[in-house]
Each structure stands twice: as C-alpha cells, then as structure tokens.
Amino acid sequence: MTKPLLVFNKNGIFCEQANVYLDPWYPVDRAIISHGHADHSRYGHRKYITHHTNVLIIKHRLGPINVTGKAYNETFVINNVKFSLHPAGHIIGSSQIRVEYRGEVWVFTGDYKLEDDGVAVPFEAVKCHSFITECTFGLPAFKWTLQSKVFEDINHWWATNKEDNQTSVLFGYSLGKAQRLLKYLNTDIGKIYTHGAIENMTEVIRPMVDFPETTRITKETTKKDLLGNIVLAPPSAHGSTWIRKMVPYVTASASGWMAFRGARRRRAVDKGFVLSDHCDWQELLTAIEATGAEKIICTHGYTEIFSRYLREQGYDARTESTQFEGESSESETKEEVDKAS
C-alpha cells in the first residue's frame, strides 16, 4: 500500500518525501506555516516558510527566526515535491498549503473562512484529491450573520454606552480579530483605545491595511480619557488589574462561541457578538465541495460529527488529532499580554 503524501505524527503534519512539516507543534528542521496564530506558528524550527505578509507577524511574535516569504500561487519545489500557498481568508497573511507529488494533490487549510472581511485576502478554493480541513464550528447550529450586520450592532452598542456615560471594552484576539474589529469601528462615535498587545500587533499590520487611528493605553491614561470611548483588549485582559481603570465600563466579546447560549455568562461579559474568523457549518460544506476532493481529513473541532456527516454524503472522510484548538487558542500568551500591558 502506497504511503499517503501527508501523514500525522507526533510532531505534526509531515511530508516525508520533502522532509517538511506543515504547522508543526514541536521543533523541526523545516516548517511551512499557514498563519501567525500561536497554535500554528511555534518557536524553535530551524527554517520557516510562510506567506510574505505573515513574515513580519511571526517575526514580531517569535523574534529573529530564519524565515522565507512566498507569494500566493508561487510554486516552490523541495525534493521534487511542489508546494504553493493560497489565500485562506482567516486572518491577514493566512494561507492554505497545496502539496503536489507525482500528480497527487493535497491541500491543508490551516484555519479559514469564506466571508471576505476586508482585511485578509479572501479565501480561494484549490482543487485537490485530499483536503485537510479544520471544523472548529462543524455543527449545523453554527450559522454566521453577515459581518456588516454584526458591526452595525457593535457600533450601536458603543453609541448607547456612550450615552450612558460608560466606557465600552470589547475583547478580541490581538492578531486577526482585533484588526477586523478595528477596521469597522465608527470613529464618529468616539476614540479607539487599545491594550498594548493589540497596539503592538496592529503597528506591524498597519502599513498593509487602512485602519482608523488608535490610542495606546498607558499608565498615564485616565478614566476620564476613556469615558464614552471604546477599548479593544485581548480576552486574557478581562479580570486583570489593568482593566480596573476603565470603571465605569461595559464589556463585550466578539467570538463565534457567542452563538452558544451561556457562553457570554461563562466568559463573564455583558454582551456577546457572534463574529468568527472560521467557517460556519455551511461554509465548511461549500468549501469542501469546491475543492472536488474525495478524501477529507477533519481536524480540531467537532471532528466526529462533521466527518460522519461527510461520509453520509459519500465522501471518504476521517478524523485526525492535532494540538490545534481553533478559536479557543488564537490569543497571545499570558507573557505577551503581561509584557504589553
């Protein structure tokens, strides 16, 4: 029996023919990285390959690493295996990784979404024989509202809080979600203040995207400065001593998990906005159909339920365990947040 082109082992997703790993979770010799979130781009690899937009992002996170940037659709060959990166639409600089050898084509999605958020390059379906897909939100219950409506609701929430003489504190991951939120906040309402972790990451990305003006919160920032304005902060800042200077404040979280009843209560926030950088149920099915793939490997999320449904639809579908945890693991480390606050 012929070995699969890509296999899952203790270090990650491995292409033996090229001796290359895709988003490995332990240090390896050569790694192709789908995007900059901490669960996909880890420290310690000898050589990194990623989309050129993601180079600055992972250097900001990981320090002085040996990294090569590639353009979308640019083919590079390692030991007769052809690789190329293609837009995933997840966050800025995110890629699907196409792998081809002797006419066999695999695609590893990393994380992805279909809705064009105006920040990341929109998702493009890539034809393949085997498709490795995340299914973080692989349940029929997940169905996203268009982001235009979500941002209308967020700006209305902010305006209402301002009328009540309160500061609005909106939680979102420092890479990806925070910049998506920032892009569509209405500065006619007031000023946008940022936690240091978000400001640091936004400074890296700002040359590539047109963002509104932001003000970093420092020790000199007062409650009076913040009153009626909005603060973007990472989820891990909630409940910290840092947030006490916001009083009186109202909190909200922007996450796909806000679709679950009780998620807002568990996260101890006043308001939840359903906004995810991953596919919902129908988007997953749409993406899979567009690839033309017959073999589907489901990772992190509702893998058993989703793969069972795919088998019922005639796909050769199975699950694989990874260290990826989807939207729950995209935040920065506690050390990064503490250092930036």
UniProtKB/TrEMBL annotation:
<dbReference type="InterPro" id="IPR026360">
    <property type="entry name" value="Xnuc_lig_assoc"/>
</dbReference>
<dbReference type="GO" id="GO:0004521">
    <property type="term" value="F:RNA endonuclease activity"/>
</dbReference>
<feature type="region of interest" description="Disordered">
    <location>
        <begin position="318"/>
        <end position="341"/>
    </location>
</feature>
<dbReference type="InterPro" id="IPR036866">
    <property type="entry name" value="RibonucZ/Hydroxyglut_hydro"/>
</dbReference>
<feature type="compositionally biased region" description="Basic and acidic residues">
    <location>
        <begin position="331"/>
        <end position="341"/>
    </location>
</feature>
<protein>
    <submittedName>
        <fullName>Putative mRNA 3-end processing factor</fullName>
    </submittedName>
</protein>
<dbReference type="InterPro" id="IPR050698">
    <property type="entry name" value="MBL"/>
</dbReference>
